[in-house]
Design goal:
single chain; about 425 residues; alpha/beta; eight-stranded parallel sheet; three-stranded parallel sheet; about 40% helix; binds (6S)-5,6,7,8-tetrahydrofolate
Length: about 425
C-alpha cells in the first residue's frame, strides 16, 4: 500500500502468508499498490515464502497528479518480464491503469519464459500478528506473556471489569516490552461476558502497533470465548486449549474448527479420566491426541503444542511432591513420541503455594525453567520481564528449591517454607 511494504491492515508479507497458508490457495499474489517497480521486493519476498504459485498484478506505475496512469505498455511489460526471469511469479497481469495494450505487451514479454519453481521450506512452527514469528533452531525459549489474563492478574481483571480496555492494553504493552513473543489473553471471570470482553480487547489490541506485532494465544476454558477470539485474529494465533476431557468426538470437532481458522492449538494432558499427573499418563494422552490431530484432523505436527500440566508443588500435600519432576521427565518422551510437536506450560502455576512471596516464586520459576528447557520445553506462559536468571539464584535458596522440584528429601517443602518465612516481604 505504501513503501512500508505492508498490507492495508498493516501486515508484512510474511505475516500475511503465515496467516493464510492453511487455506492452501492455488495462487497467492500482490496486486495494485504502487506499480511493478515498487512492488518488486514484496513479490520477491512472497516468492521466497509461498509453497504455492505466485502472481503479480501491478498498476501501470504510480498515479499522476490527476489520478491517471502514464506507464506505457512496454515499460510495465519489461518490469514483469524481469519478475518472471528472476523466478518470482507463475502468473502475471495488470491492475489499475493497465489496458488491453498493456496485457498484450505483458503476454508477449513473458512468452516462453519458464514459470517459477514452487519452493519447499522446512516445516516449522510459524505464527503471526502484524509480523511473523517462526520457531527455528536458534529461537530459544519462547515467552508467552501471562498478565493479560483476568484470572492471572488482579490489575488486569480490575481494568477489564471497569471497562478500561485502554488501560488493559498497557498491561499487554508491558508484557511485550518485557520480552514476550506471544500474548496469552484470558477473559474467564464470573462477572464478565468473556466473549464480549475478548472481542473488545483483541480489536483494541489490533490498533496498538507495538502489541499487534505479536501472535495472540486465545486462552479460555469455554469454546465460545475461544471462537470469539479466533474471529478477531488477523494473523495466525494459537488456541489455548483443547483436551480429550469430553472424549474424542468433541476433541476432533473443536480441532477441526480451529484448523479452519488457521490457528495452532495447545492440547492439555487431560482426558476422560481426568488430569494427567504421572509422566506415563502425560505421555500417553499426548500420544493419543497427536494421533487424532495428525491422522484424523489433518494437522501439521508443527501446529500442535502439548501442555503436560505444570502443577503446584510444595503445597503440603504429599501426592503433589513429584509433580515438577514428572513434568520434566515427560518432556523428552512426549517430543520423541510426537515428532514436530512443541511443548509448553503455565510456569507460574508451579509456585501457587508461595503467593505473595516473589523472591521464592521467581527462584522456583527460574530453576524449573532451567531444567525444563534442557529437557525440551519450547515455550512457557510467564510473567515476561520478571524472570530471574538461574545463575543469580542465592545458593541456599536454589538448593531448597531444587530439593522441592526433584523431591530430593522428605523435608524439602518444610525447608523451603522456612526459607520463605525468612525472606517474606523482600523484593515485592
Ligand atoms: N496451561 C495453559 N494455559 C494456562 C495455564 C497453564 N493459562 C493460565 C495459567 N495456566 C497461566 N497463566 C498464569 C498467569 C498468572 C499466574 C499464574 C498463571 C499468577 N498470577 C498471580 C497469582 O495468582 O498469584 C497474580 C498476582 C496478581 O494479581 O498480580 O501466578 O498451565 N495452557
Amino acid at each position: 500500500v505504501d513503501l512500508s511494504g505492508r498490507t492495508l491492515s498493516g501486515q508484512t508479507v510474511e505475516a500475511f502468508w503465515t496467516a493464510v497458508e492453511h487455506a492452501r490457495p492455488l495462487i497467492v499474489g500482490v496486486n495494485c499498490s504502487l506499480g511493478a517497480k515498487e512492488m518488486r521486493p514484496h513479490v520477491a519476498e512472497l516468492a521466497r515464502l509461498a509453497e504455492t504459485y505466485t502472481s503479480a498484478h501491478p498498476n501501470a506505475g504510480l498515479p499522476n497528479a490527476f489520478g491517471g496512469y502514464d506507464e506505457e505498455p512496454h515499460h510495465t511489460a519489461e518490469l514483469l518480464e524481469s519478475f518472471a526471469r528472476e523466478g518470482f511469479v507463475n502468473v502475471v497481469g495488470g491492475c489499475c491503469g493497465t489496458t488491453p495494450a498493456h496485457t498484450r505487451a505483458i503476454a508477449a514479454a513473458v512468452e516462453g519464459l519458464a514459470p517459477r519453481e514452487v519452493p519447499r521450506r522446512p516445516r516449522r512452527p510459524r505464527f503471526s500478528g502484524l509480523e511473523p514469528f517462526e520457531i527455528g533452531p536458534d529461537t530459544g525459549f519462547v515467552m508467552i506473556g501471562e498478565r493479560t489474563n483476568v484470572t492471572g492478574s488482579a490489575r488486569f481483571r480490575r481494568l477489564i471489569e471497569a471497562g478500561d480496555f485502554q488501560g488493559a492494553v498497557d498491561v499487554a504493552l508491558e508484557q511485550v516490552r518485557g520480552g514476550a513473543n506471544v500474548l496469552d489473553v484470558n477473559m474467564d471471570a464470573d462477572l464478565l461476558d468473556a466473549e464480549r470482553a475478548m472481542t473488545t480487547f483483541l480489536n483494541l489490541v489490533a490498533t496498538e502497533p507495538e502489541v499487534a506485532r505479536l501472535p495472540i494465544m486465545v486462552d479460555s476454558s469455554r469454546w465460545v470465548a475461544l471462537e470469539a477470539g479466533l474471529k478477531c485474529l488477523q494473523g495466525k494465533g494459537i488456541v489455548n486449549s483443547i483436551s480429550l476431557k469430553e472424549g474424542e468426538e468433541a476433541f476432533l470437532e473443536q480441532a477441526r474448527r480451529i484448523k479452519r481458522y488457521g490457528a495452532a492449538v495447545v492440547v492439555m494432558a487431560f482426558d476422560e479420566e481426568g488430569q494427567a499427573t504421572s509422566a506415563e499418563r502425560r505421555v500417553e494422552i499426548c500420544k493419543r491426541a497427536y494421533r487424532l490431530l495428525t491422522e484424523e484432523a489433518g494437522y501439521d505436527p508443527e501446529d500442535i503444542v502439548f501442555d503436560p500440566n505444570v502443577l503446584a508443588v510444595a503445597t503440603g500435600i504429599e501426592e503433589h511432591d513429584d509433580y515438577a519432576r514428572d513434568f520434566i521427565e515427560a518432556l523428552p518422551l512426549i517430543k520423541q513420541a510426537c515428532p514436530g510437536a512443541r511443548t509448553s506450560g503455565g510456569i507460574s502455576n508451579l509456585s501457587f503455594a508461595f503467593r505473595g512471596n516473589d523472591v521464592v516464586r521467581e527462584a522456583m520459576h527460574a530453576a524449573f525453567l532451567y531444567h525444563a528447557i534442557q529437557a525440551g520445553l519450547d515455550m512457557g506462559i510467564v510473567n515476561a520481564g520478571q524472570l530471574a536468571v538461574y545463575e543469580d539464584i542465592e545458593p541456599e535458596l536454589l538448593e531448597r528449591v531444587e530439593d522441592v522440584l526433584f523431591n530430593r528429601r522428605a523435608d524439602a517443602t518444610e525447608r523451603l517454607v522456612e526459607y520463605a518465612s525468612r525472606v517474606k516481604g523482600e523484593g515485592m
